[in-house]
Hints:
Shape: globular
Radius of gyration: 27 Å
Distance between the termini: 67 Å
Oligomer: single chain
Number of strands: 31
Low-confidence stretches: 1-43, 49-67, 83-94, 359-386
Number of helices: 20
Amino acid sequence: MLNRVDSVNFSPRNYSVSTNQVQKTKNNASNPVSFSAAPNYSADKIAAAYKGYNNINFASTLSFTGSGLAAVFNDFSQAMVTCKDKEAGSEGEEVGQRANVSDMASSVREDLPNKDDAIKANILVLKDKGASTITDARSQLKKAKGNNIVFQMVVRPPRDKKDDSHRTHFVQQVLEFETTPPIYGYNGSVVDGAEEKAYVLNTKGKLMSVIEDGDDVLLTNAGSISKKDDSKGTMTVEANEYNIKSKDGSKLDPKELVRLNSSESVRREEDIANLTATKNKFKPFKVQNVPAVTKKSGGSQGGGTEIVIGLEKGRFVPEIIDSIQTFCDKVDNGEIVLDEFVPAKNAQSMQLSMLAGGFGSRAEYANASASKIMHAKEDGSDLTKGCFRTATGLTPMETSFISLHKAGLLDCSKGNLGIGKNIKFYLNDSGQNRGNGGFSVNMYDTMEREGRDSLLILPNDAMSRIPKALSETTALMNTGKAAVVMIAKEVDKEDARGSLGIMKIDDEGKIEAFAEKPKVFEEGYVDKNGKCFANTFQFAVSKEAFEALSIVEPYLPPVELGKESRDWSKVFTPVLMGITQNDNLEDMQKQIKNSLDAVKEFKGKGYGEIPLEVLQEAKDVLGNQQIYAVKTNEPWADCGTLNALYHTTMQIASGDFPLEDFERKHVIDSIDTKTGLVASTPEQKKRIEDKWNIEGQVMVVPKAKTVSKDTVEKSAHAVVRYSDKQ
């Protein structure tokens, strides 16, 4: 076993190493420690032991001479830390990161200890923005039987940064990669080993195992993947994800462990039940009622309105435009035939918009298949959730197109749907995003909106079929009495806890209160059956509401505070609720201030103290308009994460989440209901099953391919740029 290195009682005589005083003095500001090796003893091994046994959480904060294990772990640590995007106007936005396990295993194959010792290091995987919590992982690399190399990463839930990293024994995830022989090992005069590459993907502290295999990318955080043919090397991946629950059985947010385990409070392990691994939680099932796909007559009565896709400069623009053109081509060649289009009343007075220009940091399945993670590429990622084809054969965006068609808003009939016809784009080249609120306001300000009385805003990462709710929303906006209409989906409270905004809705459909992703539910939000109404981020806004927001804009939190300052759920909607729910100006001012104080970044800074005369002006613009919700039980799922997309796909196959027959048929043909494999196409499914053993939740996506640069140029006539309107 490697000796423990004590930094206090350090003795070169005992450990045959000496400190490098020159290097130590040179870097005194950051206080690194540097080691150099005596003959016949590896400084890298001493360094790795030092980090492992002394619980150093930041491997990259120590500097070591030479190369080998310590350098590899340093690189790995830096790769796994969730980075901050530093593109113009976007600094501070957290995006995904990944680290190459294949390269790591290959780099250290000769340096591993000859015994069973594991080279270990603690790695920071997430530091919450604006908070004092840290999520870290104990990573280790060791030799197993034969020539096998095992890399394991155990992720712990968040803790207070001043607490000992080992204080909590709870774990969130365990990822393990095993390869034999070493990936790309050097054997005599030739390079052998597995042809696949392995990665750990980190998206905001949630890790995923990734394998790149030719044109396919396999992903799992709760499953097992093993290669069938070992002629070119064997690769096995095991991924466990754990549920943390209270004794009463309710789901416990891992961040609550900060409160339960903080050094400032009493340790309360009795409040927490044993952890349950979700690996292989997938249960085989039989598909019932396989749909018979029949062609529909299609056609159009004309009418409808247009949709504007919001894009962020340098991010996925060619890929999204290319994917939409593919959908239009499928409609025109008869591959997709929908019901006859019947326009909704006053459909043309509503402008449709879809926000596809954000950072896509939740789209693990997309980021993993990019040749480089988006923050590292000048032109952004090669692929995003906006253009990723799911097992339905469609992108989530195209799924929404069909809903809009059924609701009589967007004509997706043959010959009527097309870029430049009823599909247009807004390109935000301002260098600022400022969240969904700022993005949609900029979009509204730059759109040609003559004759448009409202804007319907949709996300591009939801899988839904909600034509009835869309029709009711349109009808309510047509009455002129609504400032905002949100589409609210009834969900279990545990599905909403910490992840979905929820609302109180009165008998007239007015929203009384709104809570953004609550961890604790206040009275009135949840019914006796444990159900609540969640914000689906599908909502309509009147032109009067936009005008009222522009009036109070100078008194809202400044845009320099980041995207939260223009968030619909945290800022815009609470401000509009304060104006519409009060006749007394002082009560109005107080409600808005209390709402903004509830956002920790704004608390106590005076935001919301809008002059009474300004509030009166905004109130006059809004008149009697109120904030409403349309309740729906139609199929809807937020598919911004791999887990959500995976489970929604399985629901579609089982018939619990009905879409068009051709969509469900495509899902049934693209998944394995016995092993848990979800592929994008039937052909991809066969290719994977011929080569890999699958057990549990495993999704396969196509590897990203760069779209031709002239894609945007061909659609230039349909693009409105922010800068062109200034």
